[in-house]
Amino acid sequence: MWPQMANKHAHWSKATTKTFLDLCIAEKNILNFNTKGLTTVGWNILKGKFRQQRGVTYDGRQLHSKLAGLRRIYTRWHDLQHKTGLGRNRNGGIAADDSYWRTEEGDTCDVEPTCGNPPPFLEELEILFGKNTQDKLSKRPIGEQIVDSPPKKKSASIEDCLRDISEAVTRHSRKSNNYDVAKHNQVRQILEADGIPEGSELHLRAMYLCRNAVSRMELIEMRTKEGRKR
């Protein structure tokens, strides 16, 4: 598919890793990301943009392996935050004696994150792999824990019911509009990755057809450039 041969060995410098993470986050923002990682469409778009921005071509196995490794690093860091009996050092990492790390990581701390220190690109990793509200609440000092008291019972009036219905309809409409915008942007990225110039007859025809939700999903789910050009 790509004219340039994939590099036999992937070299992940800090700049290359940052570009890779930023591209993954961009795909997550347009819904090309699930619990397992990027979707097929997301990977196809990322490969082209990664090659354009970094000037190197890594194959799918190398990119999948990098994302899986970053997930493991973040998951281990995340799990350490919830272990009891461990303190924190000045860098925000886990403070423990050498015997603990020998048990956890073997004889030496030569893997990331080293000896409980925050992993590189922690902010990007949290955006990708998530830190939910419960995590944030669990980090509150004991004196600041939120105690939920039973809600007071009250009878709902007709006006309250109508207001709730109206708010629900508004939220649904807003969510639907955001979804349509995200999918239109996804179509534009696919056309760009296929090398179809913006403003060309083929580009305009595709965007016109994709005004229809069914046609839009059919184009997004096509796996080959040749199939999309028919």
Automatic annotation (TrEMBL):
Taxonomic superkingdom: Eukaryota
Domain (Myb/SANT-like): residue spans on this chain: 11-102
Record's protein name: Myb/SANT-like domain-containing protein
